[in-house]
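pinned: reference chain
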Amino acid sequence: MGILVEEEQMTADGYISEESSFYGDDEERHHLNARSEAFRPQKYWTSHAKQINSIAYNERAQHVTVVDVPHVELHNIYEGQEAARQLHEPIHAFLKRLPPLDSRHIGPWIWIANPYPSQDKGKGKYNQQAFMIAAEQGLADYMSKKRSLEEGNPEILPGTLTRKLRPARDQMKDEILRLAVENGVTSGKWMLFPKMDDIHRVWRLVCEGVAENRLGTGAKFATGSDRPDRGRGPPVRLICVYTKDFSDRNDVRRVVEELAEMALVPRDASRGIYYKCDAYTHLGIESDNPYHLPASIYSSKDILDAAKAVKWKG
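pinned: its structure tokens
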């Protein structure tokens, strides 16, 4: 049964006034005030401490384990940058400030960083310059071998040339990845290409996943270049979801499995998404590179299928 309040007891904002009869009439309020003034805590506990409920409570309190939860100081590597989410911004405010389809004026990319500090200290000191010098020399050596093979066999068919160069190409790939790990150039990204009518949903889910520490180290969204979907079909935009270390296959798998849980990656379809290491990006290795290297080093289909097979065996 509701409490009826006279109109004169309502404030202009529609709230019950503290002067209303909600607390009782004058006689009831006088009685409660008298009890409050007469209450003596020490006297109360002198008598009540002997009661069974008080004894049981004190006994339980002695066996309570206090868990010391460490304070986590959030951090944003993009703090102060207009093209990135700020720590104080809720995701909805960030997306409102930088709507993905209306932010070309801000630059080529919109960024969001994982605000939770990584417990992994990394495998080595970052030295992109040393990596580039050594890796570019390896690419040059490979191209020299290719030219020598072509000059020595002017009639060689392209397929035969590719086949003969495969051992050298595989060795070059392994060496590039080894140099990347050795020099700390280990970041990489899963690449999503949502269609224009699905961009807001996909980018929002990615931002939420990064901010909640469910995905990788960060993500970025391409504000321009409505590239066609793999050369055909309607235009799409690129979203990159980063991980710290491409050689950490467990973490790479964890992130793509989370993307699959978010319905951003088809688990069973023949077509998935691909992972590219930043080492390849720095070297300009795209899909049409002259070394005939695959531009990506992982596919979601291969990783998810492998994870499924392991679970099946288990």
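why pinned: The two ends are 58 Å apart (CA to CA). The chain is about 40% helix and 10% strand.
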